Amino acid sequence: MEQSNYPSQQTGQVIHGPDAYAAASVRTFLAQVFSYMALALVVSGVMAWWFGTDMDKLSYLIDFETGSNTILGWVVMLAPLGLVFLMGGLVERMSGTALLVTFIAFATIMGISLSYIFLIYSIGSITNVFFITAGVFGIMAVAGYTTRTDLTKLGSILMIGLIGIVLASLVNMFLKSDTMSYVVSIISVVVFTGLTAYDVQKLKRMGEVVASGTEAAQKMALMGALSLYLDFINLFLSLLRLFGRRD
Predict the structure, then answer these.
(1) Nearest CA-CA partner of 199 in 141, 123, 138, 157
(2) Alpha-helical segments (H) within the chain
(3) Distances (CA, A) of 93 to 86, 111, 235
(4) Of the candidates 117, 142, 102, which has an alpha carbon nearest to the alpha carbon of residue 236?
């Protein structure tokens, strides 16, 4: 069998045999993950803008007389969480195609649920924070991919922090404290910035063992894209609460 040779980025030497195939497998897998993530962000962005800049469409989600959500508004707010649990719980039973359709449906509904930000922040502010988020996310993704430090322990600490954020956010729904909301947003930026690096490293390790081109690889890539998508969106919302300009 002909042996493939690839240049090593660290040493400039040539990588031979199985190591070369493993490196190629990782790149292929991560390319698929980031492609799915990018697709989800585009779908969500289009839907958020489509609903958020049209008061007639927003009226289906929000009762402007009372300021509360309509029934459809509550469905749109809660459905993404249900779809996340559906994908996580039935990933082994669902086909790759069914999981992809569910993923796109999730991104669509998630985008609609994000349309409310156009009522609070200016379009210019939303755009600026989006690009800031993309920059931070990109830096941490590269850090997670290139670092040789095992981030497993850091990931465990960050997950504890994530649970704390969820609990604090639930409590603040009743307290309605601006100070607490500000503190939670700062902690959220730290947590989701760290989770980005941790998740990319975890996905890199998956790519080393997954068989490229299989349905299992597709499903793993979709679930990986879901994790990174949630990291990005939560980081974006946290930064928007901290730096977004209100209309």
Answers:
(1) 141
(2) 18-52, 55-58, 71-90, 96-113, 117-120, 123-146, 152-175, 178-209, 215-243
(3) 11, 26, 31
(4) 117
Q: Which long-range contacts (CB under 8 A, 24 or more apart) does 146-155 make?
A: 147/197, 147/201, 151/197, 151/198, 151/201, 151/202, 152/198, 154/194, 154/198, 155/195, 155/198, 155/202
Which residues span the domain enclosing 166? 5-243
Number of domains in the chain: 1
The tokens 């749109």 sit on which residue?
76
What is the per-residue pLDDT across 184-229, written as a single tens digit (0 to 9) for each?
A: 999 999 999 999 999 999 999 999 888 888 999 999 999 999 999 9
3-state secondary structure 116-150: HHHHHECHHHHHHHHHHHHHHHHHHHHHHHHCCCC
pLDDT digits (tens, 9 = 90+) for 131-161: 999 999 999 999 999 999 999 999 999 999 9
